[in-house]
Inverse folding.
């Protein structure tokens, strides 16, 4: 059972994502080998079985059954500074305001592990199948229960686990094609408190949400081997619809619990990548990735009769990510990697404390050591630095007529978000 309140319905997918590795609440940590190159070449590099999550067409490059298991530990440092209060306006003019409260909060993103598991199995010289489990969307943020701007942000937790089954076929003439089916299980927990809106009981719960839902999608990929040292790849992942059903409590229901519905979409994205082996030891990789966040224009909740319970503009923009990486085979058993990437923010038009999304730059290092021809271990480290984001966030609390004019009271926060993160990856790969 999903339990939605007014604030929860408005916020279910506005997760605090400053600690996320990609824009908004998207996660990029699909593998450790990729992390070492800032995920450059994701759609063209066939280092291990994690290709199931990036480009299924690459599965035709495997001659043995291979398993990869591991994860990435995300240690984010995200701080919020600012102030919070209320203002009452008539025709845009402020006629009353509350005392301003401190809205500072430190370390709002707890550390987390993003796990992964993949397997690729060649069926014939031309055909291969594979499967995998990874977390492609998710975040956890936690503000103090007495946080003054508690109506904007409190405790938020999201995981969207992706289960994938894929197949690939070598078309000949250097081309390979792959397709996959995705089943996504999303779980969400959200809690908000009154904060400065109720000075006598700032920790009182204003809203609470806990629920889960399944959604389904697909992905395709194509690779072209120019020759044995040069490869191009392109991959596309479809949107995934999540149709949450639960209960609504708010002004539209006179604070009585009624059924509510909210449809959300995890955005589609595509990627173009290249891999070029320049010498016997040195190779370069690059990627351009586009995520279609413009599908996330608003949050709209309705009741069983189609009546709008709430509507909140989001107006996300499509975002781009570019990455460049290098790999160097020191000896047959050891490969070193490095990478750099730039990831655009998706929430330019309507930034929010619950999505303190910023442009971010990646700096990464990695290595693979092969203990035997069948057993290898990947290690990687990444430092992410986000640009500072300063903005004003507001939420209408109510309206009433005063002398023939409408007086609107809103909660207003003047906020600044600073974010950095350190990522540590480990994967074990085994060929059978």
């Amino acid at each position: 059972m999903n339990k939605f309140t007014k604030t929860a319905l408005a916020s279910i997918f506005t997760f605090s994502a400053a600690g996320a590795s990609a824009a908004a609440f998207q996660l990029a940590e699909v593998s450790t080998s990729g992390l070492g190159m800032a995920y450059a070449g994701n759609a063209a590099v066939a280092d291990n079985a994690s290709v199931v999550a990036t480009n299924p067409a690459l599965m035709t490059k495997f001659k043995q059954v291979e398993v990869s298991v591991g994860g990435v530990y995300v240690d984010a440092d995200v701080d919020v500074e600012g102030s919070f209060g209320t203002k009452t306006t008539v025709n845009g003019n402020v006629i009353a305001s509350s005392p301003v409260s401190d809205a500072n909060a430190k370390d709002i993103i707890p550390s987390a592990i993003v796990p992964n598991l993949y397997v690729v199995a060649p069926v014939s010289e031309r055909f291969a199948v594979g499967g995998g489990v990874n977390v492609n969307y998710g975040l956890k943020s936690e503000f103090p229960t007495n946080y003054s701007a508690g109506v904007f942000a409190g405790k938020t937790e999201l995981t969207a686990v992706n289960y994938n089954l894929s197949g690939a076929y070598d078309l000949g003439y250097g081309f390979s094609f792959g397709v996959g089916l995705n089943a996504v299980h999303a779980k969400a927990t959200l809690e908000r408190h009154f904060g400065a809106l109720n000075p006598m009981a700032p920790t009182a719960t204003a809203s609470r949400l806990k629920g889960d839902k399944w959604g389904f999608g697909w992905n395709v990929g194509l690779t072209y081997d120019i020759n044995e040292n040069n490869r191009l790849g392109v991959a596309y992942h479809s949107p995934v619809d999540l149709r949450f059903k639960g209960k609504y409590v708010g002004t539209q229901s006179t604070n009585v619990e009624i059924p509510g519905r909210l449809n959300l979409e995890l955005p589609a994205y595509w990627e173009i990548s290249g891999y070029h082996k320049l010498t016997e030891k040195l190779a370069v990789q690059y990627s351009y990735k586009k995520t279609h966040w413009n599908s996330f224009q608003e949050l709209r909740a309705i009741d069983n009769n189609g009546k709008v319970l709430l509507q909140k503009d989001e107006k996300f923009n499509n975002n781009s990510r570019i990455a460049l990486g290098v790999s160097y085979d020191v000896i047959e058993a050891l490969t070193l990697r490095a990478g750099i990437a730039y990831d655009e923010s998706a929430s330019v038009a309507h930034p929010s404390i619950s999505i303190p999304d910023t442009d971010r730059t990646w700096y990464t290092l990695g290595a693979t050591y092969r203990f035997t021809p069948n057993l290898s271990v990947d290690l990687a480290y990444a430092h992410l630095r986000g640009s500072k984001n300063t903005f004003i966030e507001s939420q209408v609390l109510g309206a009433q007529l005063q002398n023939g004019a409408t007086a609107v009271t809103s909660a207003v926060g003047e906020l600044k978000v600073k974010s950095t993160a350190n990522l540590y990856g480990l994967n074990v790969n085994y060929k059978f």
Remarks:
- The longest strand covers residues 405-431.
- The chain has one domain: 2-431.
- DSSP finds three helices and 22 strands in the chain.
